[in-house]
Structures are given as structure tokens and as C-alpha cells.
Design brief:
Structural class: mainly alpha
Shape: elongated
Number of helices: 2
Number of domains: 1
Number of strands: 0
Radius of gyration: 24 Å
Keywords: Membrane, Transmembrane, Transmembrane helix
Helix content: 55-70%
Length: about 90
């Protein structure tokens, strides 16, 4: 199975939508009399939490990429064949 990048925002969104579906199913079955505001709060809170998790995941991936790029440098001095070369 090919490996893929973990996306925490998508995981949080999926969990929030599963919670919404379970709440609606329990309300429709009569097992739970949920107020309508609960579903609005759960939906908005789930999307906000997913956005936050996406932002945190982006920052972590960016920091990890910068760290690996800096550790891969060979330590050679920059070349002097640019427009800023001394004559």
C-alpha cells in the first residue's frame, strides 16, 4: 500500500461529520431529543477545529522541510558566479 501524507484537518472533519450523522440518526430514531442548536455548534466547531488542525499541520510540515533542507546542505561556500560577484 503506498504511503501518503497525513492530513489532520481531513481526519478532524471526518470525525465531526460522523458525530453529526450519529446525532441526527439518534434524533430521528427518537433515542435522543437534541436541540437544533447543538448540530449547528457541532458543525461550526468541527470545521473550525479542522481548519486549526490543518494550519498546525502545515506549519509542522514547513518546519520539517526547512530543517531537512538545511541539514542536506554540503557546507560548500556559495559560488561567485552571480551578479553580485566581486571583480
Amino acid at each position: 500500500m503506498p504511503r501518503h501524507e497525513f492530513r489532520p484537518g481531513r481526519a478532524v472533519t471526518g470525525l465531526a461529520m460522523l458525530a453529526l450523522a450519529a446525532g441526527y440518526a439518534a434524533d430521528a430514531a427518537g433515542a435522543w431529543d437534541a436541540p437544533p442548536q447543538f448540530f449547528v455548534v457541532l458543525f461550526c466547531g468541527g470545521l473550525f477545529t479542522a481548519a486549526w488542525a490543518t494550519w498546525i499541520g502545515y506549519r509542522i510540515r514547513r518546519r520539517r522541510a526547512a530543517r531537512s533542507a538545511s541539514s542536506e546542505s554540503d557546507g560548500a561556500p556559495p559560488s561567485s558566479s552571480g551578479s553580485h560577484a566581486m571583480r
